[in-house]
């Protein structure tokens, strides 16, 4: 073979990493592992094999966790958590720092063990996963050190149940364990059934790092073990895995008053414009979809190419596919290793075999027998093709074309998922115009699969909710340090014993799309004042009224595109017009509640000023990542927010839910106080005179439980807040599983609407979603 032939074939001799150290570590445990509970390994019990997917060799036997095992781990964590949280941030930072240093010390052992267990190339484990794990513990050591000063008034959640997947078992462990420990929580982690070994090795080194007994617990097992952890007495569940399982977890945790973050599936678009560096875009696809066998939830597995360059791009891509090297994952020259398990390999094959559309190209490179799957490209698919919509989770790239940036955006967002997206163009104006329009939690410009501990990662839509990384990730493991007060239901004023009807006879219609609207049911309910006077009638809202209100809110998309300065002005106008009618509103409140209303009206005006002030001051950030890239944390509106407002503050509660939502660019559907619903009719008149576009705020009155069910089950509602005095938290959370919308519920706890609990950053954080936009720069 000539030198030219060698360069054409890109043939390399094998450069296999030794597995001796990893095998020796397995041998020290007799190739059999129990759980890691309360700082020690338990005796192995009923076990199953974990195998090297590249060879089929059994690596070790690990114990199948039972509900009793989970309960023991949770009890150990509960006992250890309070003392751990009581330590200073500096003391916790020292332990996290020690974990980071030990990860670096044992980097080779971790990398080899991860490759043996998952089948991913050693280059990925060695150069990406393990360094990022160390980076997470370094970064969160810093957060622990700074937390008391930078996030005062916050406390740890308690015991956190964590479930990680098989594609990045060690990195996902770090994403979850590091912020949990930094915040003062204890954890019970269940690694994936097929890839538990690096979690067990991590547990072992945690003792050397000085992690107190019980703060970290590892329970191995299959899906039944994970299910037992979800129903255990924990304070939070953090799950990374499939959307289907995530939906079940949302339903199971509903109404329990525990925190939940979900990082779920994806079908990420990879958009190539005609001015892109096509060779770089091809190599980006190699990194995104083939380097790791496509076993990444954020992999750009849905290729969208502009028509003018589609033929040329696909030709380059097929040629590059044919030179990929598939084989022994421990070989440092290998591009793609094994699929994590035979079940997943067979699933990939079945999905491809079922497709009858498009032009399929299977890479001409050699593929070993066993748990491997060849790099595959299927071009010319329609956007509705199942392979364009469903997550394959393998080395299968599907492709379609587009003509204009607008069409690219529409096709990219034509998915139930919203985890990540890649945009390839040399036009910075086009790139930064596209990024905010894409429904994704992360957008990479001229790159892919860039991660860092400082930059938040997570999805929208059915890719889940919550962020991992940065301050946002830490806040997911904290809560305000307040003494909870029991919620006291507020009943409407009863009808008077006498049949005599006095007072104002007025029928309050709903406020939908900037106009009064009659209730679909045609029914109305009398509303009685504190002294038995008839104050009016209010319509009884139905599912159809909610549908109409949500449609109006969706039609007000332009509100999110207005400048923050314009939103500020509108909120000031609302406050000004409410102030002009302060005496009238105070009198109405007294008639409704029997209490003087002046203080509540003034508090509502002040609250409008507060969120008018915040509207143009909630800032994004450029995260300091250790690479030549800007990681921009953009704060975007959630979308359409449904909110059930409190009874104990009919005006102030209504304003407190409405103002932060619209200040951040959301549209909202508000269910006013069930006890005093006429307040919304009066506020609607103020909104009409305040330059607020129609549809941005909508009011639908009626029974809280009925309307909560309609809002939580509506597929076009992006978030539901429940402050109602009827504790319907479980209902809202359970029904939200349909499209995995964000929820914020009171869990039977009352809120002080006149004090700090009624306003501030907590409301603003619930009204925005963080999108991370990566913009690499410079050479190399």
What would a concise description of this structure say?
It contains 27 helices and 35 strands. By secondary structure, it is of the alpha/beta class.
Structure in words:
With 780 residues, the protein is of the alpha/beta class. The chain has a 10-stranded mixed beta sheet. The protein has a 6-stranded mixed beta sheet with strand order 9-8-7-10-11-19, sandwiched between helices. Helix 10 (243-253) packs antiparallel against helix 26 and helix 11 (278-290) crosses helix 12 (307-322). The longest helix is centred in the N-terminal third of the chain and has 29 residues, at 122-150. It is globular and about 95 Å long. It starts with a helix and ends with a strand. The relative contact order is 0.09.
Helix content: 40-55%
What is the CATH architecture assignment of the largest domain? 3-Layer(aba) Sandwich
**Helix/strand structural class:** alpha/beta
- CATH class annotation of the largest domain: Alpha Beta
How many H/I helical runs? Answer: 27
- Overall morphology: globular
Low-confidence runs of at least 5 consecutive residues: 499-505
Q: Can you summarize the main beta sheet?
A: 10 strands, mixed
Q: Report the C-alpha radius of gyration, rounded.
A: 28 Å
User: What gap, in angstroms, lies between the N and C termini?
Assistant: 32 Å
List the helices and strands and how they pair.
Elements: H1 3-9, H2 20-28, E1 32-33, E2 36-37, E3 40-41, E4 47-51, E5 58-63, H3 67-86, H4 89-105, H5 107-118, H6 122-150, E6 154-156, E7 159-163, H7 169-183, E8 186-190, H8 197-209, E9 216-218, H9 223-230, E10 236-240, H10 243-253, E11 259-263, E12 269-272, H11 278-290, E13 302-306, H12 307-322, H13 342-353, E14 359-362, E15 376-379, H14 386-389, E16 396-402, H15 405-412, E17 420-424, H16 428-434, E18 442-445, E19 464-465, H17 470-475, E20 478-480, E21 485-486, E22 507-508, E23 510-512, E24 515-517, E25 524-528, E26 534-539, H18 543-554, H19 558-561, H20 564-580, H21 582-593, H22 598-614, E27 621-623, E28 629-637, E29 640-644, H23 652-663, E30 667-671, H24 678-688, E31 697-699, H25 704-713, E32 719-722, H26 729-735, E33 742-745, E34 749-750, H27 761-766, E35 768-776
Parallel strand pairs: 1-5, 7-8, 7-10, 8-9, 10-11, 12-13, 12-17, 13-16, 15-16, 17-18, 18-35, 22-26, 29-30, 29-32, 30-31, 32-33
Antiparallel strand pairs: 2-3, 4-5, 6-20, 11-19, 14-15, 21-34, 23-24, 25-26, 27-28, 28-35
Helix pairs in contact: 4-6, 4-7, 4-8, 5-6, 6-7, 10-26, 11-12, 20-22, 21-22, 22-23, 25-26
């Amino acid at each position: 073979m000539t030198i030219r032939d060698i360069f054409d074939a890109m043939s390399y001799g094998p450069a296999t990493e030794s597995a001796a150290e990893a095998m020796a570590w397995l041998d020290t445990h007799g190739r059999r592992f129990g759980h890691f509970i309360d700082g020690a390994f338990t005796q192995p019990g009923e076990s199953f094999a974990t195998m090297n997917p590249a060879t089929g060799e059994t690596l070790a036997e690990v114990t199948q966790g039972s509900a009793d095992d989970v309960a023991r781990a949770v009890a150990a964590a509960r006992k250890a958590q309070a003392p751990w949280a009581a330590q200073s941030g500096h003391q916790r930072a020292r332990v996290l720092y020690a974990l980071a240093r030990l990860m670096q010390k044992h980097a080779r052992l971790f990398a080899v063990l991860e490759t043996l267990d998952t089948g991913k190339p050693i280059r990925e484990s060695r150069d990406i996963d393990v360094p990022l794990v160390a980076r997470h513990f370094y970064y969160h050591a810093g957060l622990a050190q700074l937390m008391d000063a930078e996030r005062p008034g916050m406390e740890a959640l308690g015991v956190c149940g964590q479930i990680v997947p098989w594609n990045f078992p060690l990195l996902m462990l770090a994403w979850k364990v590091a912020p949990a420990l930094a915040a003062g929580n204890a954890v019970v982690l269940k690694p994936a059934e097929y890839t538990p070994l690096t979690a067990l090795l991590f547990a072992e080194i945690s003792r050397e790092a000085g992690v107190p007994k019980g703060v970290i617990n590892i329970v191995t097992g299959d899906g039944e073990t994970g299910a037992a952890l979800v129903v255990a007495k924990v304070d939070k569940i953090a799950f990374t895995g499939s959307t289907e399982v995530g939906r079940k977890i949302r339903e199971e945790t509903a109404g329990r008053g525990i925190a939940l973050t979900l990082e779920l599936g994806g079908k990420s678009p990879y958009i190539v414009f005609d001015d892109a560096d096509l060779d770089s875009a091809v190599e980006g696809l190699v990194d995104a979809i083939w380097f790791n066998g496509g076993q990444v939830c954020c992999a750009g597995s849905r290729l969208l190419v502009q028509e003018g360059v589609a033929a040329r791009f696909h030709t380059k891509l097929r040629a590059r596919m044919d030179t990929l090297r598939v084989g022994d994952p421990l070989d440092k020259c290998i591009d793609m290793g094994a699929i994590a398990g035979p079940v997943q390999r067979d699933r990939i094959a079945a999905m491809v075999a079922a497709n009858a559309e498009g032009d399929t190209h299977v890479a001409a490179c050699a593929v070993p027998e066993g748990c491997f799957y060849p790099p595959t490209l299927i071009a010319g698919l329609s956007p509705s093709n199942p392979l364009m919509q469903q997550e394959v989770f393998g080395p299968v790239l599907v492709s379609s074309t587009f003509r204009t940036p607008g069409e690219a955006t529409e096709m990219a967002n034509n998915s139930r998922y919203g985890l990540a997206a890649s945009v390839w163009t040399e036009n910075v104006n086009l790139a930064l115009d596209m990024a905010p329009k894409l429904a994704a939690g992360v957008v990479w410009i001229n790159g892919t699969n860039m991660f860092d501990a400082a930059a938040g990662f997570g999805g929208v839509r059915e890719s889940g909710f919550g962020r991992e990384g940065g301050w946002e990730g830490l806040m997911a493991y904290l809560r305000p340090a307040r003494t909870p007060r029991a919620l006291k239901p507020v009943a409407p004023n009863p009808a008077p014993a006498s049949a005599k009807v006095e007072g104002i006879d007025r029928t309050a219609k709903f406020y939908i799309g900037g106009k009064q609207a009659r209730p679909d049911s045609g029914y109305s309910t009398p509303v009685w004042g504190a002294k038995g006077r008839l104050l009016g009638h209010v319509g009884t809202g139905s599912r159809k009224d909610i549908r109409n209100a949500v449609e109006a809110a969706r039609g007000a998309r332009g509100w999110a595109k207005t400048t923050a300065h314009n939103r500020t002005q509108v909120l000031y106008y609302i406050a000004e017009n409410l102030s002009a009618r302060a005496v009238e509103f105070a009198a109405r409140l007294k008639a409704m509640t029997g209490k003087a209303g002046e203080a509540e009206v003034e508090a509502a005006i002040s609250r409008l000023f507060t969120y008018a002030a915040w509207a143009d001051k909630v800032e994004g950030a450029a995260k300091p990542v250790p690479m030549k890239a800007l990681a921009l944390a953009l704060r975007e509106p959630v979308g359409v927010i449904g909110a059930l407002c409190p009874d104990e503050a009919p005006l102030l509660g209504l304003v407190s839910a409405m103002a932060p939502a619209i200040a951040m660019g959301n549209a909202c559907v508000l269910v006013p106080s069930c006890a005093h619903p006429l307040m919304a009719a009066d506020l609607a008149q103020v909104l009409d005179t305040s330059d607020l576009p129609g549809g941005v705020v909508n009011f639908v009155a009626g029974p809280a439980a009925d309307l909560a069910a309609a809002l939580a089950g509506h597929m076009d509602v992006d978030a539901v807040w429940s402050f109602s005095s009827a504790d319907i938290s479980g209902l809202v959370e359970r029904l939200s599983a349909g499209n995995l919308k964000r929820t914020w519920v009171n869990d039977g706890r009352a809120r002080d609407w006149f004090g700090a609990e009624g306003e501030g950053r907590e409301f603003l954080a619930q009204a925005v979603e963080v999108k991370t936009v990566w913009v690499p720069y410079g050479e190399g």
